[in-house]
Amino acid sequence: MQLKTSSFNKGIYFFNLKRFWLIAFSFTFLLTLSVIDFLRFASENTWGRYATYAPHEIARVIFSHSDMTATLLFPFFSLVSALAVFSYIHFQRNTAMIHALPINRNSLFTTHYLSGLTLVLLPLAVSGVVLVVGELLMGITHVGYSLLWIMVSAILLLLFYSFAVFAGMFTGHLAAHALFFLIFNFLAVFLEEVIGTVLSSLLFGYVRPYNSPVEPLSPIVYLEDLFSGFSNAKGSYVIVVCYLLAGLVFTLAARAIYRKRHMETASDVISLQIMKPVFKYSVAFCSSALLGNIIVGLMNFGRSFTVFVVGYLIGGLIGYYAADMLLRKTFRVFKNNKGFIAFALIIVLFLSGVHFDFFGYETYVPDARDVEIMHVGSYRNEYVTVALDPESYSPDKHRYFFWDTDYIDNPPAKLDEDMIRMLRLKAGVLEKPETIEKAVAFHRVISKNASSLNNMGEENGLYHYNESSGVRYFNLSITYRLKNGRIVERAYYLPYASSSVDLRTSLQELFTSDEYMEKANPMLLVEAEDLNLIHVLFYDESDTVLNLASTEELEGFLSAFKQDILNTDPLSLFLNYKEANPTSIEITFSFKEDRAPVIQEGGMTHITGNTRTIRLWADYHHTLEYLSKKFGH
């Protein structure tokens, strides 16, 4: 006879499986369909006419092929299973009946927990067998990644299911159980978005991190990136181990709470007395952030500190008293205002600390001696990110880098030195110490005048002309890679010149430096000996054509052409924007073999054959004068 003190009850376990078999069946059906679809894909791309993968590579593609399926199915069926097997704790009649059985709480929790875990892991086991057997039948013997997929998926299901059970221990309400699971899974990215919105609105120069550091704390959001990493053979085993440990911790914590949980809390929104203040202030903060940002957006006051304070306080007020009503089960809660006053003071202090820059973020500029490499441009992009930090390169994510090379179908797993060098030829990437010093000096001018520059421009765009003030505004992005590996980023929307701050002098010092000019205008490096000829086409009545081929002609034209580039307004060079109109003269530079400059219009090394064709600008006076004097045009 089974002892009443046993930690597992076989009768309840199989009763739950019989009662909720449809959950496991549905999960198995959908997951197996995904696996079969992958096997079809593997067959076509390994043995088909247009095969792109070798047999030893195809197995790892299961991760990228199933990432969306896993993102949708894993959390959903984990939650449904937890709701099903622990639904009795949310109804007083059911929980009283279950706890009246001659079974202790340890046995009840363990049995219900394991039956729910079986509902989510059994479908994975069935699908895993189909996957491995299918690959072996196709002749794909390298199934290590398929086994890894099964293991990683099992850990994720353990995490989601354990967390769903854990979330249910805090409430006696079925709907709240599901809601808590979803909220906590997205809480990290929600808070990151809220804080990022506040910082980017109130903190001058703030740049949100390119890669979210908190995304792994929201597993539903991070799952696609996690699977993508394993698909590229760069998966994070550390994250997987952390998820495994977190799943075990949630299980033990849920068991401990279940043992102390009172039956009469069934139907209560919060079942633990100690968690009620946490719930109330958490709802107040989330409501403050969500409704506050909505209010700021609707009022469209941009960086207004006052609007942020008012909006966040209104949102917090609504959330605070709504949570209090749920906890007290009454509308008569408005006399309890001491807690909200303390909450409001904290919110005001937080927003004030950001707005008035208590921590010196706006005034910080790295020392030029600490900078290894940096970028100054109108915006940042992935090319620049990888140029400064090659370790951030991902073959799958950055495949488009190689659209103009032989790597387009099979990007390299890691960038070599030549590839990094090519990326660092991008306009605005600065490596020479003397150029970096000029860039840092320019940044110091901005930081010293932060209070004056902060609210000057509210337009959104790379370039804007304010007719009322006659001031040109432009976007500026500055990214440093320090010698210790740290990345420092700032982004500004600045006036080129105004009554209070004039950036022209320091900007010109930087943007007319040799390194900046040569990377922004590779034609400055072209010499007469690099060219076969210069073809000049006049779109006039007779479509006059001139071919400059002698050394004297090439040198004369290049000298005039380079002088016009150097005389261009530095802001126009920086923005790649000219107010002058193009002429009807078309210039084609024909380069000798292997002498063409690297013209990076997209991709890694985009060169259109050995020619470069441009339209001559109307303000290129030296070039126009040379053509006129030399040939009468």
Based on CA atoms alone, the radius of gyration comes out at 32 Å
Mean pLDDT across residues: 84
What is the end-to-end distance?
A: 110 Å
Main sheet summary? 5 strands, antiparallel
Count up the helices. Answer: 22
Uncertain runs are 457-463
Oligomer category? single chain
* Shape designation: flat
User: DSSP strand (E) fraction?
Assistant: 5-15%
Helix content: 40-55%
Total count of strands: 9
How many domains?
A: 3
Structural class, from secondary structure content?
alpha+beta
Explain what you see.
Helices cover 55% and strands 10% of the residues. The chain has 633 residues and is of the alpha+beta class. Strands 1, 2, 3, 4 and 5 form a five-stranded antiparallel beta sheet that branches. Strands 7-6-8-9 form a four-stranded antiparallel beta sheet. The longest helix is centred in the N-terminal third of the chain and has 33 residues, at 105-137. The N and C termini lie far apart (110 Å).
